[in-house]
Amino acid sequence: MAIERHGSGLNTRTYAGGSFTMSGTTTVNRIAVLNGANWQPVGNGIGFNNVVYGLRSIGGYLYAVGAFTSVDGIPANRIARWNGSAWSAVDFGADDEANVLGALQNEVLMGGIFTTVDALGLVSPALARFSATGLPWIAQQPSADSAACGAAADFSVMPSPGHPYLAFQWRRDGILLSDGPTPAGSIIAGTTTTALSITNVQPGDDGAFDCVITSPCGNVFSNTALLTITSPCAPLCPADIAPVPGGDGLVNVQDLLAVIGAWGACGNPSNCPADIAPAPLGDDLVNVQDLLAVIGAWGACP
């Protein structure tokens, strides 16, 4: 006999399946639900035409497997499901007995002595999977990564096996990514595969990355994974500090005056563009070292 609780909230009830056909004087052909102190038939009362071996509540349905080929007069080859008001077949079912039921993510797992399920030839004893939505689930979610400026970062995702015709699209902060160099100078690859890589990581590459997996049945979205840049990038032309922001591609008197104007200890060491020496990130002081660095870099930026 199989026993399972199914439903939601106050509508959750106990169901029983097996080889029985009666409960007291009530006909319950191999499936019954406990209503108070009494067992009652499930559906129109015809029930299953052969034994029920397993029951499992999965994804809002009550699934049943066994040796039956019909339920409530409807053809259902060894597997059927109850939606709260009626029984229905699950695809084409199996060609022989199904003995056990299980659940993994959004999929129904069925085991038994069958050799064929739907159009698939299987080895006996067999294990088959069924998804009510047809959507894959994500077996491996992307993990957060961190990288120093100029280093590399990687993200990967892995869908559940057995789902053909999948397409992948990576996003950062909800915006679709494409392969190739970025305006910041980094290089992105694998934006339409299961593995995304970013080389020469630069400011602006940080953010929340996720992957959209598209199947013939719809889209599945991975969890987001954060990329954190752990060290700042030295500017390509550190002496070009004026005019702000970003300079003008020239090291000249404007930059010299900017150093003199910022002379002394940096008020905000994380944002002190005049502190350019010693390279690459200065010493939190604007002094003669920075003045000499500007003079030494005089002219057009390389």
Can you summarize this structure?
The protein is mostly beta strands. It is 6% helix and 42% strand. Helix 1 packs antiparallel against helix 2.
Topology:
Elements lengths: L1 E5 L6 E5 L4 E2 L2 E2 L3 E5 L2 E4 L10 E7 L2 E6 L3 E2 L2 E2 L3 E4 L4 E3 L8 E7 L2 E6 L3 E2 L2 E2 L4 E6 L6 E3 L4 E3 L5 E4 L1 E2 L7 E6 L2 E2 L3 E2 L5 E3 L5 E5 L7 E9 L2 E4 L3 E5 L20 E2 L1 H9 L2 E2 L19 E2 L1 H9 L2 E2 L2
Parallel strand pairs: 19-29
Antiparallel strand pairs: 1-2, 2-5, 3-4, 5-6, 7-8, 8-11, 9-10, 11-12, 13-14, 14-17, 15-16, 18-21, 20-26, 22-23, 22-27, 24-25, 25-26, 27-28, 27-29, 30-33, 31-32
Q: Determine the strand fraction and express it as a percent band.
A: 35-45%
Low-pLDDT residue spans: none
Extended strand count: 33
Head-to-tail CA distance between termini: 81 Å
Instruction: Report the biggest beta sheet as strand number plus sense, adding barrel if it closes.
Output: 6 strands, mixed
Radius of gyration: 33 Å
Helical coverage, percent range: under 10%
Please identify the structural class as seen in this structure. Answer: mainly beta
Describe what you observe in this structure.
- The structure is a single chain.
- The strands form eleven sheets. Strands 19, 22, 23, 27, 28 and 29 form a six-stranded mixed β-sheet that branches. Strands 1-2-5-6 form a four-stranded antiparallel β-sheet, with no helix packed on it.
- It has helices spanning 253-261, 288-296; strands at 2-6, 13-17, 22-23, 26-27, 31-35, 38-41, 52-58, 61-66, 70-71, 74-75, 79-82, 87-89, 98-104, 107-112, 116-117, 120-121, 126-131, 138-140, 145-147, 153-156, 158-159, 167-172, 175-176, 180-181, 187-189, 195-199, 207-215, 218-221, 225-229, 250-251, 264-265, 285-286, 299-300.
- The longest helix has 9 residues, at 253-261.
- The protein is rod-shaped, with a radius of gyration of 33 Å.
- The chain contains two helices and 33 strands.
- Helix 1 (253-261) packs antiparallel against helix 2.
- The protein has three domains: 2-131; 138-229, Immunoglobulins (Immunoglobulin-like, Sandwich); 250-300, no CATH class.
